[in-house]
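Before relying on records like the one below, remember that each one covers exactly one chain. Contacts with other chains, cofactors or solvent are not represented anywhere in the record.
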Amino acid sequence: MNKVFPFEINPFCAKEVACIMTIQRLSGIILLFVIIITAAIFHASYPRALSRSAAIQNAQERLQIERIDLQRQTLQRNDRLKFYGTLSVIGSFNLAVLLLAIGIAHSRIKAASVFTLRIGEQSAIPVRYKDLPRIYPIALNLSLAELEGSASDSHDKAYQISRQMIEDAANYTRALSSHAPNRLWGNEPTQTLSMAIAATTPTFAELLENGTIAPGKPLLLGYADGQPQTRELRDLKSLAIAGWQGSGKTSSTAYLIASSVFAYSVHAYILDPHQQHPESLSALIRPLTATGRVHIVNPFDTPKLIRDLTQRLDRRLAGEEPSEPGLLFVIDELARLANMECFDELVRLLERCTEETRKANITFFGSSPKWTARYFKGRADIRGCMNSMLIHKTKPSQADLLLEDSQEKQLVKGLQQPGDAILATDFAPPLCVSIPRCVKADMETIARRMRESRQEADMGIYDMPQEEERTPAFAPEVISLAERRRKNTQFAFKGLHPQDMTIDLIREQFARLKEEQPDLTQAEIASRAGLSPSVFSKILNKKQALTFDQQQRLYDALFADMRECRQFA
């Protein structure tokens, strides 16, 4: 039975449907073929992939094993290093302790060692090592006594030396055994002896009171074993003062300045970088500036002062200027000047101090806590310019720089009290001395005494009755009173120098000039001197101290006539 379709089939559509189905069949066949090929390739390559992953895993395991072995070896090496390092530290510590113990034992044995001091051929006394510096004066007196007694007929002198030796030995024994017999070999006799020496050393005030320090007497540099050590100021030439802070260096310098000014009437020029500090050298000796003999120089005027001293040295050596009064040049903190441009000029002046300044009556004091060359711009020769030394408590290495004999530096260890020092001068062995203690009141006492003596001298000059000049009958005119006073003043001040200028002298001369010239004013004198009127007024009213430059200016302004008279003479 034939089916009847409700629509008619287009022959063109049938062909398209057949084409599409053919394409789908071909696509399925191609897809199936691709799947088969992929499966074949996978089956062919899978065993190789398995073998490659196994090799990688084996390599990783070997790497891990090597890392573990390396860590184990490193730990073993570190353990060995720690072990041997610990042994080295312990060994070094034990060796250091052993060396320290040996050193302490050696020092104690050496300190406790006893030497024999032979006296002549029959007698001998034991002396401890630490007491050798103090027994030296006794041994020296013994030797001198034996020489005097055997080599000459000076029995009286030998007897006196022997008596002095006995007294020194008695003081020595008394100082060591003052408290208990068993302290003779203890650690305290050095301090006891030092305190005993310090207690027996008189103060500056006591020396002034009993006349030990007085005009015209030698310079007392201290006491060694109770005996005064005196020297002439000009024999010191150049004195190096060393010591730690607090060792008495400033007090000793002030004592030497005051003693020199009072005993020799020298003019002292002080350079102090710390002059504004209340505990400085300048503050201690400032009362002495009223005498007109002590001049605290402004540090900025240092080059001018050095050149002036050099010129005065040349003039004195050439005979153009008298060697009196003496000049004292003092520098505190000498190492501070090494940074100044004038330091080389200062060194050249100090080099001349060792040879020429004694003839010119010029002395130098230089104070510094350290004398190493690096503090003086490498100029180690500055130490060679020092003829005398006053070494307070300091390092033995610093003492070794100033003392020629390296054994003498051990004397520094025996300095126990402030003011104790090693004194070394020409033609005398180094001695441990105790310098008298001075305070500001002593400076005021010196200033007062010098001012009183100056007033007495002035009264002797100006109050002396002057013989009136008789006017001859043929004289055309009579000499006025002002002219006579001017001539008498020129005669009285004929030996005056700029460094002699004091405020009282300036006021006195200004009053004389005012009497001669009623129209003269302070402003005019200040203008002549190159000073401001206010500064000159303060100087006259003693509200401002005189400087070296102001002394020179006022000398030229107030005493010009006298200077011309002296040059004419």
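The longest strand covers residues 114-119.
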